[in-house]
Amino acid sequence: MKLYFAPMACSLAPHIILRELGLPFELIRVNNQTKRTAEGGSFLDINPKGYVTALTLDNGEALTEGPAILQYLADLQPEAGLAPANGSWQRVRLQEMLNFITAELHGGSAPLFRSDLPEAALQIFRDKLFQRLDWLESRLDKQDYLLPSGFGVADAYLFSILGWLPRFHIDLACWPALQAFFHRVAARPAVQAALQAEENSAPVEG
Ligand SMILES: N[C@@H](CCC(=O)N[C@@H](CS)C(=O)NCC(=O)O)C(=O)O
Question: Which of 14, 26, 56, 72 shows the greatest Cβ crowding within 10 Å of its Cβ?
Fold first, then answer.
């Protein structure tokens, strides 16, 4: 398998999960501006939608969209317990959570990266994001991870998005349970290894 990633982007979540599962994979950096890959080709040939994450399989298929990739990886090793069993009610709860993260947090915070939006518009997105973080705070006040079953794919996804908050000048300390969650996940060896690998990866020129 090959994981196409950009440092500290949403691709960090499947990257963490690949390492948590100890699966063999190649990490291929993408220049998100030029859409060139570290292999020398165009990323658009891998994912015509033009954004990370993409996971290419040994059979030549390319899988995109974070929640689908995360569940695919977890199901390669169900015994690791990173996602509840396919078809179970708890799996539906995981899908509910992944959809919340992708639509409300990931999609909801993406406009905050924009430097061309007026402050009033940015404040609307910030206020909405704060409401979502408040809801997560009440949940993580009662349990260590998003699902009662313990650390899993949704936690890796949430961790990756929370890592963007300093770039938006949002202080995670305003949500103490979320901050504790962030440190708990950051301490995992697979998470440290993924962060190191992304930091050490060579930029893709051109
Ligand atoms: N719906 C996609 C969104 C992926 C996405 O937003 N990727 C961002 C990085 S976090 C990206 O590569 N953006 C570059 C671009 O859109 O050109 C998913 O869940 O995988």
Answer: 14
Judged against a pLDDT cut of 90, whether residue 206 lies above it is answered with: no
Residue 206 lies in a domain: no
Cα 79 off chain centre by:
22
Report whether residue 68 contacts ligand 1, using a CB cutoff of 6 Å. no
Is the pLDDT assigned to residue 44 strictly greater than 90? Answer: yes
Atom of ligand 1 nearest to the CA of 49: 16
On whether both 93 and 140 belong to a single domain, the answer is yes
Can you read off the two tokens belonging to residue 169?
């000048």
| CB of 43 closer than 6 angstroms to any ligand 1 atom | no
Helix (H) or strand (E) holding 49: none
Please give the torsion angle defined by the CA atoms of residues 136, 146, 67 and 1, in that order, rounded to the nearest 10 degrees.
140
Are both 140 and 70 inside the same structural domain?
no
> What is the pTM (predicted TM-score) of this model?
0.98
The count of residues in the chain is: 206
